[in-house]
Design brief:
With 476 residues, this protein is an all-alpha fold. The chain is 77% helix and 0% strand.
């Protein structure tokens, strides 16, 4: 018959629990070894029976009053029962028996953090660092990162992770965490130097190469970042985050084809994510591959239908192809949650404008200026639309309002002049044009673009020529 150690251990635990129940009920004077109490307390903790764990620790403490280990378990049980001050009192007793046990400092830290005494908790761990070495010191440093994070001493988190890696350069948990904290604290140069040292010691650490790349990316040295990521994927071909970051670096360098290649590789290595398809779509967009861009934006939207910005991006690909009807459909989808979103209204207004649907276009552009009254671009789109629609009197009024709302931008004086010319008020229009040329002559090109035939008006041509001549004389 084969020996089954698991069954043997289960039977032993069952017997221990029975003995404990007898002791608790006063039905037996059975003796339980210290190791047995450890097993009982662990059993209750694993099942979140914290009151039972505490009761077991109390009975154990009466039988083994000089066991620091059992006092630590009692203190830990009190934390689970949210009796934090009582836990600290028990730890003071335990410290008299054994002040060099790691659990003393870990449990004390937990109790102090629960009482919002983060600074005291960090002081406990900082003092303990001088006592421990090796794995125990590393464990304390990890505890300290949690404490520093708790009271937002983020540079301290970075420093602890750096110390861990000085102690154990292959520590994966620290390597994973320090990547985030290097970026968060902006200590990229230190991160680069640290990981260069780690790579000298262990040149086949893909995490160290990845973190080195992230450090370079943090200070915008994208080509060096790409080199580091390429080493990371050479060591581990399945390192999808290295492909992602490499893709972002290629995008920053405007190397969109290279970015597409590595981002598509990333998609094959991990569960598809909206952000990756969106990035691939962006690259195709920049390469004027609008159909491919749209395909990827749609994949992204399928994975994240709450991101209505993707519908806007889909609409922009249709607009680039002058496919106004489909662009309008996508924009209307994008606006379901917020019909006043200014960017979406601006794009929708442009689509309607291209279809000569001036009424709808004017409504959209009016929404834009209502939300962003100080922004010139929305006003200019609205005024251009009013001009094309032949609504010259309304256009003059809106140009005056735009001038007022945008803290007197000179471009709107030119628009006033253009609307006055269009409505047959040439004398007044010339007065506005002369004033505009005096205030800021650089917008005259935009004035002509409103209606190029204005240059055929001799008075307009003479006035512009006069201001050019006087400007040259002033500059000479």
């Amino acid at each position: 018959m084969k020996h089954n150690p698991f069954r043997h251990g289960r039977e032993e635990l069952k017997e221990l629990l029975q003995n404990f129940d007898n002791l608790k009920a006063g039905r037996s004077s059975a003796y339980i070894e210290e190791e047995g109490f450890d097993m009982i307390i662990e059993y209750f903790n694993n099942r979140d029976k914290f009151q039972d764990a505490f009761d077991a620790a109390v009975i154990a403490n009466t039988q083994f009053p000089y066991s620091a280990s059992l006092l630590f378990k009692k203190a830990d049980a009190l934390i689970s029962l949210k009796q934090f001050t009582e836990s600290l009192n028990i730890l003071e007793q335990a410290a008299l028996l054994d002040s060099r046990d790691l659990m003393l400092y870990v449990i004390k830290t937990d109790a102090l953090l629960a009482l919002d005494r983060s600074v005291e908790a960090s002081a406990v761990l900082e003092e303990a660092l001088d006592i421990f070495q090796g794995e125990e010191r590393v464990e304390l440093l990890f505890e300290l990162t949690e404490v520093y994070d708790d009271y937002e001493y983020f540079d301290g988190v970075f420093d602890c992770l750096k110390l861990i890696l000085k102690e154990d350069s292959a520590n994966e948990e620290a390597l994973y965490k320090i990547c985030f904290w290097t970026d968060f604290t902006g200590r990229n140069e230190e991160g680069i130097k640290l990981h260069q040292e780690i790579i000298e010691e262990n040149p086949f650490s893909e995490l160290a190469w990845f973190n080195l790349g992230a450090g370079y990316q943090g200070i915008k040295l994208y080509e060096k970042a790409i080199d580091a990521y390429q080493y990371a994927v050479a060591i581990d071909e399945g390192f999808d985050y290295a492909y992602r970051n490499m893709g972002d670096a290629f995008i920053k360098l405007r190397k969109f084809n290279d970015a597409i290649e590595v981002l598509e590789k990333s998609v094959t290595l991990s569960r598809p994510e909206s952000v990756i398809y969106e990035a691939i779509g962006h690259c195709h967009d920049k390469l004027d591959n609008f159909n491919q861009a749209r395909i990827n934006y749609k994949k992204a939207y399928h994975l994240n239908p709450d991101d209505l910005q993707l519908q806007y991006k889909i609409a922009c690909t249709y607009m680039s192809e002058h496919n106004w009807n489909n662009a309008i459909k996508s924009l209307q989808n994008a606006m379901k949650a917020n019909s006043m979103q200014p960017d979406y209204n601006l794009a929708l207004g442009r689509c309607y404008f291209q279809q000569d649907n001036y009424e709808q276009a004017i409504t959209c552009f009016a929404n834009v200026v209502r939300v962003r009254p100080k922004n010139s671009s929305g006003w200019i789109e609205l005024l251009d639309c009013l001009y094309e629609a032949g609504l010259y009197d309304e256009g003059f009024e809106y140009a005056a309002l735009a001038f007022e709302q945008t803290t007197s931008k000179p471009i709107f004086v030119y628009y006033k002049s253009a609307f006055l010319f269009a409505s047959g008020h040439s004398k007044q229009a010339l007065i506005y044009l002369e004033h505009a040329l005096f205030v800021n002559p650089k917008f005259v090109k935009q004035f002509i673009e409103i209606n190029p035939s204005l240059l055929q008006n001799q008075q307009v041509a003479d006035l512009i020529a006069k201001h050019k001549k006087s400007r040259k004389k002033k500059n000479s």
